[in-house]
């Protein structure tokens, strides 16, 4: 059986480790709250900054946006925002490595950031300028014409035979 001195040392070690871990997590929280990442698009004409939660905290534009259409400006804002947000998981990974190290909690935090802020999509060519556009499409040769509609049922001739009950029900009691 362990003597009282060993138990006290174990409790002291546990308490010291818990305080050190709490201090590391406090430092991690402070660094995460200070995150500020900026992305840009349209050759630097549009910049978007995201904060510690990945939500935009600022949008800046240069005079170069005057040459862009409203749709191009909107697309540039979204591209810059996605670019900034896509760098968020890496920044979280760096902060966690510097402060708390690699443990189950830090791996979960990184995985959550990667789910929330995936890499930006590949850049697509700019959309064509608005106005008249010529679009040429070809149809596949193996298309079959749609089937004809089903034939309409022919109306039945009205039978005025003796089996008519005069529109009276035989289930009703009088």
Give a short summary of the structure.
The chain has helices at 4-33, 70-86, 88-99, 104-116; strands at 37-41, 46-50, 56-61.
Quickly list its features:
three-stranded antiparallel sheet, 3 strands
Please specify the SSE layout and strand pairing.
Elements: H1 4-33, E1 37-41, E2 46-50, E3 56-61, H2 70-86, H3 88-99, H4 104-116
Antiparallel strand pairs: 1-2, 2-3
Helix pairs in contact: 1-3, 3-4
How would you describe what is shown here?
This protein is mostly helical. The protein has helices spanning 4-33, 70-86, 88-99, 104-116; strands at 37-41, 46-50, 56-61. The longest helix is centred in the first third of the chain and has 30 residues, at 4-33. The model has no long low-confidence stretch (mean pLDDT 81).
Figure out the total of helices: 4
pLDDT averaged over residues: 81
- N to C succession of SSEs: HEEEHHH
Structural class comes to mainly alpha
């Amino acid at each position: 059986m362990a003597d009282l001195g060993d138990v006290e040392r174990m409790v002291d070690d546990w308490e010291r480790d818990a305080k050190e871990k709490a201090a590391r997590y406090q430092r991690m929280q402070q660094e995460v709250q200070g995150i500020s990442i900026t992305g840009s698009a349209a050759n630097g004409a549009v910049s978007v900054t995201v904060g510690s939660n990945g939500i935009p905290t600022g949008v800046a534009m240069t005079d170069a946006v005057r040459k862009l259409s409203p749709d191009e400006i909107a697309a540039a804002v979204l591209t810059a925002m996605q670019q900034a947000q896509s760098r968020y998981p890496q920044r979280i990974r760096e902060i966690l490595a510097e402060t708390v190290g690699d443990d189950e909690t830090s791996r979960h935090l990184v995985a959550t950031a990667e789910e929330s802020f995936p890499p930006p999509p590949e850049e697509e060519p700019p959309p064509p300028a608005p106005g008249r556009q010529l679009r040429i499409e070809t149809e596949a040769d193996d298309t079959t014409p749609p089937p004809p509609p089903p034939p309409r049922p022919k109306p039945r001739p009205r039978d005025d035979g003796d089996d008519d009950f005069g529109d009276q029900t035989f289930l009703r009691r009088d």
